[in-house]
Amino acid sequence: MARMTLYNKRDLLSSLMFLGFGLLFLIYAQDYNMGTTRRMGPAFFPTMLAVLQIGLGLLIGILAFVPANTDEEPIHSTDWRGLGLIVGSVFLFAQLLPFAGFVVAAPVLLLLASLASPESSWKERIAMAIILTVGCILVFRIGLEMTFPIWPPSLS
To answer: Is residue 152 within 8 Å of 100, Cβ to Cβ?
Structure first.
């Protein structure tokens, strides 16, 4: 009986992550109506993405056992500070949006998340926050006509 040899631990861990999230989204999407390809329901797109993600996870998992690249780099420790800043900024955005509006919540999200990487200056961070905030308002509020508060309720 042939024995399988793991050649790339990083690929195996990545495949498990893709499979886990794909299965989670696939299960979660089943609470909604699937619809048909002609009249897609709210579960159609998340289900198709979940299936693609599961397929990608399977492919990466198989490739972890193929001796293509044996010069594997060591897995580095997790940057908990950066992860905390990014997750915290998203949580803070969700809490700020109804009370402070998009023009306050989006720059707070972007500036706080940008602190996770020391590679940019404050000038670049502020420019990015302004450009992305204006771009998101143009695309989502004006272009797609999504309803979310732009300004704080006290200024509306």
So the answer is: yes
